[in-house]
């Protein structure tokens, strides 16, 4: 699943990014409402986690804007304010659930999973690009209706590139997705994984969806739907 995390506190934002990535999600973590609105406009998301106490535009106003733009993905709010008025105001703005800081990650994860289960009938279950189809629920890929045997890391790279199709994705961003808590990992690992992925996807039909942009990263050239 693709999650959008909006949290201005850097340590908590990194912690949520790391733990949710380790749980198998594709995570975009941003610090303010303006960047969140950009991400929501450019990409599809399955769920958002939004802190109410954001700088500039508040979390409440962000939620109102997202709902006003027709974004229907579930929203879970984070708040350090535990009084009932804030919870009611957040839910009235369009949020679906809330967690009060400080919280245990296990509680947050349980609430996220419950929201995802309840909304599963309304969220995207596949991503397709030409003959390539990703099944987001089963974490499987098929090419020309034939299964493609991918390792867990190959799948995560492919899903991330397809979700960010026609955008250059830096190696560092892919490293963060695969190894969020390992700053010492050799970036050449990404080159090896992308090389293996290409060999599995490129066939005789001329389908070559992953380009290298020298000095910048990788580009999934096909438009996804």
From TrEMBL:
Residue numbers carrying 4-aspartylphosphate: 51
Stored Pfam families: Response_reg (PF00072), Trans_reg_C (PF00486)
PROSITE patterns: OMPR_PHOB, RESPONSE_REGULATORY
Response regulatory domain segment(s): 2-116
Residues in the DNA-binding region annotation: 124-222
GO molecular function ontology, one term from the record: phosphorelay response regulator activity
Protein name: Response regulator
Species annotation: Pseudomonas tructae
Lineage of the organism: Bacteria, Pseudomonadati, Pseudomonadota, Gammaproteobacteria, Pseudomonadales
């Amino acid at each position: 699943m693709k999650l959008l995390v909006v949290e201005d506190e850097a340590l908590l934002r990194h912690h949520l990014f790391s733990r949710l990535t380790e749980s198998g999600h594709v995570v975009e973590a941003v610090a303010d409402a303006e960047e969140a609105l950009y991400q929501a406009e450019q990409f599809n998301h399955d769920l958002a986690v939004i802190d109410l106490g954001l700088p500039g535009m508040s979390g409440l106003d962000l939620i109102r804007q997202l709902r006003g733009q027709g974004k229907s993905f579930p929203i879970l709010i984070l708040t350090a304010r535990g009084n009932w008025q804030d919870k009611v105001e957040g839910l009235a703005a369009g949020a679906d659930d809330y967690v009060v800081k400080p919280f245990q990650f296990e509680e947050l994860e349980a609430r996220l999973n419950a929201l995802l289960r309840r909304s599963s009938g309304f969220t995207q279950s596949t991503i397709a690009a030409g003959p390539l189809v990703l099944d987001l629920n089963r974490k499987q890929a098929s090419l020309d209706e034939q299964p493609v045997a991918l390792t867990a890391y190959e799948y995560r790279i492919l899903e991330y590139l397809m979700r960010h199709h026609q955008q250059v994705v830096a190696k560092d961003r892919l490293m963060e997705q695969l190894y969020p808590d390992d700053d010492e990992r050799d970036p050449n690992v990404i080159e090896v994984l992308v090389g293996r992925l290409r060999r599995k996807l490129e066939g005789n039909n001329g389908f070559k969806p992953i380009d290298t942009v020298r000095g910048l990263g990788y580009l999934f050239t096909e438009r996804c739907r």
